[in-house]
């Protein structure tokens, strides 16, 4: 399991660097590794705090630059939620369920995004569709009153 995951990550990283003609730096690798399969929708600060544990010399600017590079190349999504920029390794169209108690953001998949895109097609050129649902997640509901 773990070996498989590492192999997939390595392949993805190699492909990414080759495709974009990027140098294979330790920083870049660490950012890709951190984001791979990450469902937390981290902000640049959250990513930096986590990455610094492994690479103490890594600057916030570098993390910001690498994340934006990955987003520009279309490997991750960059989106804004409540004026906060977040990064998402899931690039398939999907919606976000935002728990207003714990602040966690969950992915959900629906073809409602397609419908919304189609409905807007006559209004203009649609680049991305953001589906955002607010509520309280099951994990929070379970601990409620307990
Ligand atoms: Zn919650
Ligand atoms: Zn997401």
Offer a few descriptive terms.
Dna Ligase, domain 1, 3-stranded mixed sheet, 146 residues, alpha+beta, Arc Repressor Mutant, subunit A, binds zinc ion, globular
Could you give the topology of this structure?
Elements: H1 2-20, H2 26-35, H3 44-51, H4 60-72, E1 77-81, E2 84-88, E3 95-99, E4 105-108, H5 112-120, E5 131-135, H6 138-143
Parallel strand pairs: 3-5
Antiparallel strand pairs: 1-2, 3-4
Helix pairs in contact: 3-4
One zinc ion binds next to loops.
Helical stretch tally: 6
**Category from helices, strands and their pairing:** alpha+beta
Please trace the helix and strand order, writing H or E for each element.
HHHHEEEEHEH
In CATH terms, the superfamily of the largest domain is Winged helix-like DNA-binding domain superfamily/Winged helix DNA-binding domain
Indicate the CATH class of the largest domain: Mainly Alpha
CATH-defined architecture of the largest domain: Orthogonal Bundle
Unreliable segments of 5+ consecutive residues: none
Description:
By secondary structure, this protein is of the alpha+beta class. The protein folds into 2 domains: 82 residues, Winged helix-like DNA-binding domain superfamily/Winged helix DNA-binding domain (Arc Repressor Mutant, subunit A, Orthogonal Bundle), CATH 1.10.10.10; 49 residues, 2-Layer Sandwich (Dna Ligase, domain 1). The chain is built from 6 helices and 5 strands, in the order ααααββββαβα. The chain has a 3-stranded mixed β-sheet, with no helix packed on it. The chain has a two-stranded antiparallel sheet with strand order 1-2. Strand 1 and strand 2 form a beta hairpin. Helix 3 packs across helix 4. The longest helix is centred in the N-terminal third of the chain and has 19 residues. The chain is globular. One zinc ion (ZN) binds next to loops.
């Amino acid at each position: 399991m773990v070996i498989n995951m590492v192999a997939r990550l390595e392949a993805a990283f190699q492909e990414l660097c080759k495709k974009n003609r990027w140098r294979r730096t330790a920083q870049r690798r660490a950012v890709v590794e951190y984001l791979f399969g990450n469902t937390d929708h981290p902000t640049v600060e959250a990513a930096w705090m986590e990455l610094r544990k492994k690479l103490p010399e890594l600057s916030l600017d570098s993390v910001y630059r690498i994340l934006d590079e990955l987003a520009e190349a279309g490997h991750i999504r960059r989106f804004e939620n409540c004026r906060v920029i977040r990064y998402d390794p899931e690039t398939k169209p999907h919606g976000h369920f935002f728990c207003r108690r714990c602040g966690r953001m969950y992915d959900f998949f629906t073809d409602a995004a397609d419908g919304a895109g189609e409905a807007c097609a006559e209004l203009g050129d649609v680049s991305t569709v953001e589906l955002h649902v607010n509520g309280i997640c099951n994990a929070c509901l379970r601990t409620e009153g307990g």
